[in-house]
Design a protein that fits this description.
The complex is a heterodimer of chains A (about 475) and B (about 160). Helices cover about 40% and strands about 20% of the residues of chain A. Chain A has about 475 residues and is of the alpha+beta class. Chain A has three domains: about 90 residues, no CATH class; about 170 residues, Cytochrome-c3 Hydrogenase, chain B (Orthogonal Bundle); about 110 residues, no CATH class. In chain A, the strands form five sheets. A five-stranded antiparallel sheet of chain A has the order 3-2-1-15-16. A four-stranded mixed sheet of chain A has the order 8-7-6-11. A three-stranded antiparallel sheet of chain A has the order 12-13-14. In chain A, a hairpin with a 5-residue loop joins strand 13 and strand 14. Chain A is globular, with a radius of gyration of 22 Å. Chain B is of the alpha/beta class and about 160 residues long. Chain B has one domain: Rossmann fold, CATH 3.40.50. Chain B is about 30% helix and about 20% strand. In chain B, strands 2-1-3-5-4 form a five-stranded mixed sheet, covered by helices on one side. Classes of the chains: A alpha+beta (about 475), B alpha/beta (about 160).
Chain lengths: ~475, ~160
């Protein structure tokens, strides 16, 4: 008799989700599914609102990556206005984005994934969490806190608020960079780089202990999608879309991101509220691709900063045949390299000769009725697409979030891990954690979650083919 | 009272209200934070934030008294709940991640910074967590009660309610 195991909700990710594992008649894993169980109604919610409110509204979708929504939304508004952002405004936005990526990646690595990495996948679940990390490795926990806080401070110093700032506006930013803020950020960068480099050393030191996880945590060929700079370099803020395949061959390059819908389709499955984006040229589901740090480093020809490029060279060695790095376990590694890139890029932006230029905003009225903005959020490519009427009100909006792009890959990844680690009609703690850990590699941000007191539990259900619960476990 | 500048010394009291402002009553904790900030309580910092994340442990560690304010599913009488809370050190399942619990921040403050501030939780009864901005009438009433309770706690110290 085939059975289904359910992990509900998945822990240490943002939002509401669960995992079901379908066993076949022989008790072996047939398929696993990652279900997003909360409906996001934000596109509908924004209809009728003035377009210029969109950056502030959509930034409130998420508490972890509000800046990404802010930037993608502002870029969509720029497109509506048909404006060219002044260079200082462009640099200011990029600087803000660097702070955002540092704080988000620091949270993911130091506080969400480090318990698995440093305490072990099979460690007692009563200890394998951030408090256990704080107890066993207090210095690492403190450094993670410092690094995340530094990223947050960059946002707060620039924009006045660390969460949901209104500093980014259509046409640029509201106020220029000041010398005081420039100097404060510059002062913190050396320590931030030291912390990141120590984390990279730590990572390399433990990598050998995770051979099974590397082999089975979403280790399969897919395409990789991201923005890249016109010269093929890493770019988190702007550029054009590039797709590489598993051999790192370029499938498509320099695609206009505002024409994303010519290349990306969105399939719907009845068991999840999260859509399944795919590469149209290959159809669904063959057009599976991944986004985010792993995809960006696979796609980019170079980072363009000294320390990050040295790390990128090491990262490339993970693929023996010169192809793409395929295991999603290495999202963690890629995240650390990107932190380094962000810190170095921030320093370059702050040391630019015109860093304090006060011309940071272009003002205009809408010149078209449709606009698209695309940026690389910490978790991957983020697309905002709006249509407005003659009263400048939103009549239609489409948001493709990074986690959505990775939806198919996450599902295939947990199936792969479950086949390796789940046996029989009971799920052991270590196996349970590994299946969840596959999802955490992608650091999915389903955001828009309610988190009200007492509502978060983890439930594990074992169901027969008819949906009857055979076994159930819960974590309060 | 204004929110303190990032580099200024910490205040004796700290109020943290959190929630998602686009999900109905989930915003109740933030509304309390915004109201307390607007009214001003001397010697109190206010953090109005989307969710609890680990770095807040440092802010918690720097203060003598911290009040957490959040929405919670409404119980029958619809009254706010005010209760002391303690470090979650030793808990099997802490919630700190993208979304954490006050107890976890207190535990991290104790473990990492050897700090044990007095802590209170004010839970505002919530009816709806659906997408939308306005609070329900009962949550609005809860916010008003919570603001008064928070001010009393911050001003007088030990007596809840």
């Amino acid at each position: 008799m085939s059975k289904t195991i359910t992990i509900d909700p998945v822990t240490r990710i943002e939002g509401h989700s669960k995992i079901t594992i379908q066993l076949n008649d022989q008790g072996q894993v047939d398929e696993a599914r990652f279900h997003v169980t909360q409906f996001r109604g934000f596109e509908k919610f924004t209809e009728g609102r003035p377009y210029y409110e969109m950056p502030a509204i959509t930034a409130r979708i998420c508490g972890i990556c509000p800046i990404s929504h802010l930037l993608a939304s502002a870029k969509a508004c720029d497109d509506l206005l048909g404006v060219r952002i002044p260079p200082a405004g462009d640099r200011a936005r990029r600087l803000l984005h660097m702070g955002q990526t540092v704080q988000s990646h620091a949270l993911s690595f130091f506080h969400l994934s480090a318990p698995d990495i440093l305490l072990g996948m099979d460690a007692d679940p009563a200890k394998r969490h951030v408090l256990g990390l704080a107890q066993a490795h207090p210095e690492i926990a403190k450094e993670g806190i410092w690094l995340r806080m530094f990223g947050q401070q960059i946002i707060e110093w620039l924009a006045g608020r660390r969460i949901h700032p209104a500093w980014v506006v259509p046409g640029g930013v509201a106020t220029p960079l000041t010398a005081e803020v420039r100097d404060k950020i510059l002062e913190g960068i050396p320590r931030a780089i030291e912390i990141t480099q120590r984390a990279l050393e730590l990572w390399r030191g433990v990598l050998g202990e995770f051979k099974d996880e590397i082999a089975t945590f979403g280790n399969f060929p897919t395409h990789f999608l991201s923005l890249t700079a016109p010269d093929g370099g890493l770019d988190l803020y702007d550029g054009n879309l590039r797709l590489r395949d598993a051999e790192r061959g370029i499938v498509a390059d320099q695609l206009d991101p505002t024409a994303y819908d010519e290349h990306i389709g969105e399939a719907v499955e009845p068991w999840s509220y999260l859509k399944m984006p795919f590469y149209k040229a290959q159809g669904y589901p063959e057009g599976i691709y991944r986004v985010g740090p792993l995809a960006r480093l696979n796609n980019a020809d170079h980072c363009g900063t000294e320390l990050a490029d040295k790390e990128l060279a090491e990262f490339r060695k993970l693929s023996a045949d010169g192809g793409a790095v395929l295991s999603s376990f290495h999202y963690h590694y890629a995240r650390l390299i990107e932190i380094l890139y962000c810190l170095e890029t921030a320093r370059e932006l702050l040391n630019h000769p015109d860093a304090l230029d006060t011309n940071v905003r272009a003002k205009a009225q809408p010149s078209r009725r449709e606009g698209v903005g695309v940026a690389e959020a910490p978790r991957g490519t983020l697309i905002h697409h709006y249509r407005i009427n003659e009263s400048d009100q939103i009549t239609w909006a489409n948001l493709i979030i990074a986690t959505g792009h990775n939806n198919m890959a996450m599902n295939r990844g947990i199936t792969q891990a479950a086949k390796k680690f789940v046996h029989g009609d009971r799920i052991e703690e270590g196996a349970l954690n590994r299946v969840e850990a596959v999802i955490r590699c992608y650091d999915p941000c389903l955001s828009c979650s309610t988190h009200a007191l007492g509502q978060m539990t983890l439930r594990l259900q074992l169901l027969d083919p008819n949906g009857n619960v055979l076994d159930e476990k819960a974590r309060a | 009272m204004k929110k303190r500048a990032p580099d200024s010394p910490p205040a004796a009291g700290l109020l943290i209200g959190w929630g998602n402002e686009l999900l109905g009553d989930d915003a109740a904790g933030r509304r309390v934070a915004q109201a307390v900030e607007a009214e001003g309580v001397p010697g109190v910092d206010v953090i109005d934030i989307h969710q609890l994340t680990p770095e807040l442990a440092l802010r918690v560690a720097e203060t003598h008294r911290v009040i957490f304010v959040d929405a919670c599913p409404a119980v029958q009488d619809g009254a706010i709940r005010v209760e002391p809370i303690y470090s979650g050190e030793g808990d099997d399942q802490p919630g700190v991640g993208h979304t954490g619990r006050p107890e976890d921040l207190l535990a991290m403050a104790a473990m990492l910074y050897d700090a044990q501030p007095e802590a209170w939780l004010i839970a505002v009864p919530a009816r709806s967590f659906e997408t939308g901005e306005p609070l329900s009438d009962s949550a609005e009433a809860g916010v008003r009660d919570a603001v008064e309770a928070a001010k009393r706690l911050l001003a007088r110290g030990n007596t809840p309610g």
